[in-house]
Amino acid sequence: MIMTNITTRNGFLLVGFSDDHELQILYALLFLVLYLVALTGNFVIITITTLDQHLQSPMYYFLKHLFLLDLSFISVTVPQAIDNSLMDDNYVSYGQCILHVFFFTSLACTEVAILTVISYDLYTAICFPLHYEIIMDPRNCQWAMIAVWVSGGISGILYSNFSNCFIKSATFSITFCRVKIIYQFFCDVPQLLKLFCSNDYLGVIGVAAFMFVVALACFVSIAFSYVHIFSTVLRIPSAEGCSKVFSTCLPHLFVVSFFLSTDICAYLKPTSDSPSAFDFMVSIFYTVIPPTLNPIYI
């Protein structure tokens, strides 16, 4: 059934969690619940941090952008998955696949950048409290966020540009080595790479290597910030002061660790011709769960 007409259709077939339509409906309902929880939680927090005059510090400014980002991030993959499951039609066109790649990679890279900026904000607040207002003044915060969003957009353009070149060549000459089946509930880069026949994939790997270096730099920056934060906190004589700092930092550290570890697991793990339930669960962990966990920041 999966193979039917897919070689002649101008697009890809997403193979999600099950071929059973009743199970697909169950998964769609579960995704819908998670999506509504994420939308409601993030929207409420964005509204509160915008309207409450006591929540106008740089930290809440960055968190507001993070919540807005996660609203967009979860909206790239989950609504499409819900629609495909309910309609029992997992076909996506080339154009939809390019948009998936662009928005997903843009927002994922932006997320890593924002988490890095938030860790630097915490580092500055705890390690240099007397200089905090000067370092994190509103103008600097605005420029930091502009740089974050622009860097994410550039990442998405690089990925989608190579994907677009590949797709255009595939449209006019059959360059697929395999049937155009993506074992994922969205157009994921590792799954697309598995379909390449020509050396075009080397360009995507080059971009992926560059982005890996950038992500590694962000990870090192976050680790550097937290090493100094914890070394400073352990010197605080007051147990109440330590508890307050830990209650602020640990939620952020948890989300950073969760997001980066599942991302690394998904992108460095070799793709399989018969993905396991574990592979799909990992993809849910880095696409759906982080936006749903955002309220733990507040």
Q: Quickly count the domains.
A: 1
Terminal Cα span: 47 Å
Beta strands, count? 3
Order of helices and strands: EHHEHHHEHHHHH
CATH superfamily: Rhodopsin 7-helix transmembrane proteins
CATH topology: Rhopdopsin 7-helix transmembrane proteins
Low-confidence stretches: 1-5, 166-174
Widest β-sheet, arrangement of strands: 2-1-3
Characteristics:
mainly alpha, 298 residues, Rhopdopsin 7-helix transmembrane proteins, globular, single chain
How would you sum up this structure, described in words?
The chain contains 10 helices and 3 strands; from the N terminus they run E-H-H-E-H-H-H-E-H-H-H-H-H. The chain has helices at about 20-50, 60-85, 95-125, 130-135, 140-170, 190-195, 200-235, 240-270, 275-285, 290-295, and strands spanning about 10-15, 90-95, 180. Helix 2 (about 60-85) packs antiparallel against helix 3 (about 95-125) and helix 3 (about 95-125) packs antiparallel against helix 8 (about 240-270). By secondary structure, the protein is mostly helical. Helix content is about 75%, strand content about 5%. The protein has a 3-stranded mixed sheet with strand order 2-1-3. The relative contact order is 0.14. It has a single domain, classed as Up-down Bundle (Rhopdopsin 7-helix transmembrane proteins), CATH 1.20.1070.10.
